Structures are given as structure tokens and as C-alpha cells.
Amino acid sequence: MISVIAAIDEKRGLGKGNDLLFKIPSDMKRLKELTTGHPLVMGRKTFESLGRKLPNRLHIVITRDAKSLKDLSFQPDVIVGSLEEALRQAQGENKEIFIFGGGQVFTEAVEKGLVDRLYLTVVQGDYGADTFFPDYSMFTKVVKEEEHEEGDYHYTFFILEK
């Protein structure tokens, strides 16, 4: 199964200035619980923005510029040149694969119909994003929906399928 995990605002805003719009502790906990032990597929900028490798996950990074990763103090487990190659590498793990970002990788995966499930945290409001999550209206089956409030954030955890 190929899944996407992301936190977005009501306008599908994903990030701003190469960073997340929000870091909600319960959302980070959910991300850890869902992705631990699974392969993560992400673009180079997303990997760099992590600041470190996330424990107990296979990090597969898509980039056209592998040399730029050499200066990092932490390295991905696998470097590939395309989303398709990343998914081929991840399928050997025989586990749910998580597409982890960023915006270009999410858009390519959703628009090509490669995604089976979305794990979305949708935060109420418009946070002035400059990077957006793709249209996901084809994911019409709501597997789970949980509303939450934490600090100034009102948000809903969704699990959606086609």
C-alpha cells in the first residue's frame, strides 16, 4: 500500500519558506506512530529540512542533485532519481510505504494515481502557504475522522481512500 502523510490548512497549504506551517505535538506523535518501521519517500529539500534521520525508518530521497546531499551530517539510506524508482526500492520492504513530501512529490504521486490512502491533518484556517497539497477530491471514502483542539489549533485527523 502506498500512502501519503501530510498536515495542511483549509486551503491545502502545506508549507512556507521551505518549512512546515505548523508543528502540533499530537500530530507529530501520530506521524511517529504511523511511520515508524516503514519506508519514507521524500524529495531532497524535505530530507534536508528534517535536520536528522528519523529513527527506525528507511529514508528514500528523490533528487536530480545527489552531490548536494554529501555536505549533510546525516545521509539518506537510498538516493534515487525518480518517484517510480523510489517506490520500486521501497516495495522490497513489503510494508506500507509513506510518501513524506514535499509539495512536488505529493503532487506527482497523487496526479499519477499512485496513492492508495491519505493520512491528512487538516488545520482550520489559512496560514499563508507558498506550497500546496494537490487536489485530493478523488479520495472520497472516509476511513476515519477525528476532530481535535490543541493550543490555538483546531484540526481534524483524516484517513481517506479512493
Label the CATH architecture.
3-Layer(aba) Sandwich
Helicity, in percent? 10-25%
- Total count of helical runs of at least 4 residues: 4
Can you tell me the overall shape?
globular
- Which residues sit in consecutive blocks of at least 5 with pLDDT less than 50? none
Report what the structure shows.
- This protein has 162 residues and is α/β, with parallel strands linked by helices.
- The chain has one domain (2-161): Dihydrofolate Reductase, subunit A.
- It is 22% helix and 37% strand.
- The chain has helices at residues 25-35, 44-50, 83-91, 103-111, and strands spanning 2-9, 13-16, 19-20, 39-43, 58-62, 78-80, 97-101, 117-123, 131-132, 141-150, 153-161.
- Strand 10 and strand 11 form a beta hairpin.
- The two termini are 13 Å apart.
- The model has no long low-confidence stretch (mean pLDDT 95).
Sum this structure up briefly.
The chain has 162 residues and is α/β, with parallel strands linked by helices.
Topology:
Layout: E1 2-9, E2 13-16, E3 19-20, H1 25-35, E4 39-43, H2 44-50, E5 58-62, E6 78-80, H3 83-91, E7 97-101, H4 103-111, E8 117-123, E9 131-132, E10 141-150, E11 153-161
Parallel strand pairs: 1-7, 1-8, 4-5, 4-7, 5-6
Antiparallel strand pairs: 2-3, 2-9, 8-11, 10-11
